[in-house]
Specification:
The complex is a heterodimer of chains A (358) and B (274). Chain A has eight helices and 20 strands. Chain A has a six-stranded mixed sheet with strand order 6-7-8-3-9-10, sandwiched between helices. In chain A, helix 2 packs across helix 3, helix 2 packs parallel to helix 4 and helix 3 packs across helix 4. The radius of gyration of chain A is 25 Å and the shape is elongated. Chain B has two domains: 37 residues, no CATH class; 219 residues, MetI-like fold. In chain B, helix 3 packs across helix 10. Chain B is globular and about 70 Å long. The chains are: A alpha+beta (358), B mainly alpha (274). Chain A: Belongs to the ABC transporter superfamily.
């Protein structure tokens, strides 16, 4: 081996074709050691295919996948230093929990001593808080417990990279949140690179160090979660990660004014002039009750719906001459919430308007 | 409607019940019950011809079922990896083997074997170094071949249903956990499909043990139990035959229930409903 690789996973112009369909097209990406990376995208965007190419279940049509600096072309799954947590857990139904977890260790040649296998299996079960469950049959366990068995079965092998294929999709919301926290602390504890595939943007944002947004077989943006949310590179990313209000218009010469279709002018942070689509996050908008001012940059409208979200209130506001916009207000700011039918004023800071060339 | 159904069942099962009943008859008559006795069982099982036929049947049933289980499973595993179109063809062929009447299979096997022997025996004779080359003929081999072929279709259908419900992801999971393809087969696939293979074996055994039609065509000079029973019936139905029939019935029922149990237990476990 050459000098220790800095990247656990590297894609070098990787493409994957299924007949006529191009599932993954020319991806170049590097996952640094010890990072928690979320592959986020709509279904069919190629994220699972990428994961399966790392696992060795699919071979790239073009390009090379490197694991820990080693090219993996033609290397079968059972010779790769990665382990996968499958979407439906894929536990072995005829084996008990302990035999499931120790399975990977028992395949190793030269053989690992039996006492060592037992010790590491017990440790892994302890780590996922299933200490007393070693002799249980897997179908006697709940979904969340099966999930943890699947996790233990993978991490017991101390892989270079742990691949997680929508591992929380089958759990109910409350359990999912608990598992998100557990996964995150597990990753910190082990220092293993985690690569998580998900279509749930909330999950991707809350757990990972890097979010890698994919669309139509390509990586659109790879950045820390906050950057992806606050500075999306494209309209697709802005739309996919979080809720958006869209405004189309033209940036006028000078680049600080956005002229909307109805003649309204909104202030923007310096932009290249031209036709654009602007995006405004619902929580970046301030809502004030009362009759709207006549100023050109003001957005006056009527509340049409109010949705109580528990910790916040979401309003749908019909803007005069523009259409509907979503506004999210904190619970504290909404102690005296606006009623449907009420006239309100919307305002926002120019820097919160995200502008993309149309 | 209920009465009609009752009659159907009566006509179906009454003759069988009578056979069982008269096997315990003390007298010789097959129509008049004169007292309970196990004498006919004793007589049947001290009949050397019958014992010989029974032995033949057991050897043939066991061997053909074993072959069918092994090759049927192999066929099922291979079909799982085939392209959809090829699989359809083989599915059809297996289904055809089950649907085709026994008479046709019997004749077809006989003709095919005769053709093979007519080429093989002279060829062997010309190649053999000594003056007495081995001669292939009808007998154990031909019955086992005919039964094995038919049963293979049954086994592969049963095993295939099980493989289809197995799911690809546990195989992938095993691969992911460093198990070689053979290791995966031995530790994951085989234990999962074993009950259906056993069920297939038992059904194949039952089929071969009970089969008269195919065996009759290809048996040559060998006598299996059903052939023996058929031959003795020409000399009139005796309680001895009833005793044999009852024994076969009980053995067959036992095997079929065992096979059913094996198949049922497995589906329960996969659906996880316990």
């Amino acid at each position: 081996m050459t000098a220790a690789a800095v990247n656990d996973i590297e894609f070098r112009s990787v493409s994957k074709r299924y007949g006529e369909v191009l599932a993954v097209s020319g991806i170049d990406v590097a996952v640094p050691k010890g990072a928690f990376v979320a592959l986020l995208g709509p279904s069919g965007c190629g994220k699972t295919t990428c994961l399966r190419m790392i696992g060795g279940f699919e071979q790239p049509s073009e390009g090379t996948v490197l694991i820990d600096g080693q090219p993996m072309n033609g290397v079968p799954p059972y010779r790769r230093p990665v382990n996968m947590v499958f979407q439906h857990y894929a536990l072995f139904p005829h084996l008990d929990v302990e035999a499931n977890v120790s399975y990977g260790l028992r395949q190793r040649r030269p053989r690992i001593e039996r006492r060592e296998v037992a010790k590491r299996t017990a440790q892994a079960l302890e780590l996922v808080r299933l200490g007393g469950f070693a002799k249980r049959r897997v179908h006697e366990m709940s979904g969340g417990q099966q999930q943890r068995v699947a996790l233990a079965r993978a991490i017991v092998n101390r892989p270079a990279v742990l691949l997680l294929d929508e591992p929380l999709a089958a759990l109910d919301r409350k359990l999912r949140t608990a598992m998100q926290i557990e996964l995150q602390s597990l990753q910190r504890e082990l220092g293993i690179t985690f690569l998580l595939v998900t279509h749930d943007q909330e999950e991707a944002l809350s757990m990972s160090d890097y979010v890698c947004v994919m669309n139509a077989g390509q990586i659109v943006q790879m950045a820390p979660p906050q950057e992806v949310y606050d500075r999306p590179r494209t309209l697709f990313v802005a739309d996919f990660v979080g809720k958006t209000n869209r405004l189309s218009g033209t940036v006028e010469a000078g680049g600080t004014t956005l002229r909307l279709g109805d003649g309204r002018a909104l202030p923007v942070v310096a932009q290249t002039p031209g036709a654009v689509t602007a995006v405004l996050r619902p929580e970046a908008i301030r809502l004030d009750r009362g009759e709207c001012s006549e100023r050109m940059d003001a957005l006056g409208g009527t509340v049409t719906h109010r949705i109580f979200l528990g910790n916040a209130v979401e309003y749908a506001v019909a803007i005069d001459g523009l259409g509907e916009m979503l506004v999210t207000a904190d619970r504290s700011a909404a102690r005296d919430p606006a009623e449907p039918g009420e006239r309100v004023n919307l305002s926002f800071k120019p820097e919160s308007l995200l502008v993309f060339p149309a | 409607m209920r009465a009609f159904v009752s009659f159907v069942y009566l006509f179906l099962y009454a003759p069988i019940a009578l056979v069982v009943l008269f096997s315990f008859n003390a007298g010789r008559s097959a129509s008049e019950f004169t007292g309970f006795s196990l004498a006919w069982y004793g007589k049947a099982f001290s009949n050397t011809f019958l014992i010989q036929a029974l032995q033949n049947s057991l050897i043939i049933a066991f061997t053909s079922a074993l072959l069918a289980a092994v090759f049927g499973t192999m066929a099922a595993l291979a079909m799982e990896r085939m392209g959809a179109r090829m699989r359809l063809v083989f599915d059809g062929l297996f289904a055809a083997a089950i649907v085709v009447p026994g008479v046709v299979i019997g004749i077809a096997t006989l003709v095919a074997l005769a053709a093979v022997f007519s080429v093989l025996n002279p060829a062997l004779a010309s190649l053999w170094p000594t003056a007495t080359p081995p001669q292939f003929g009808l007998g154990y081999f031909s019955i086992i071949a005919a039964h094995g072929l038919f049963s293979m279709a049954v086994v592969s259908m049963i095993v295939r249903a099980r493989i289809a419900s197995l799911g690809r992801d546990i195989v992938e999971a095993s691969n992911d956990l460093y198990a070689t393809p053979f290791g995966t087969f031995r530790q994951i696939v085989l234990p999962q499909i074993m009950p259906s293979v056993l069920a297939g074996f038992l059904l194949a055994f039952t089929f071969s043990f009970d089969d008269f039609i195919i065996a009759f065509f290809v048996a040559g000079s060998k006598t299996t139990l059903p052939i023996y029973v058929f031959a003795s019936i020409r000399r009139g139905v005796t309680p001895e035959i009833n005793a044999v029939a009852t024994t076969v019935l009980i053995a067959s029922l036992f095997l079929i229930f065992a096979a059913r149990f094996l198949m049922r237990e497995k589906t329960m476990r996969t659906s996880g409903e316990g």
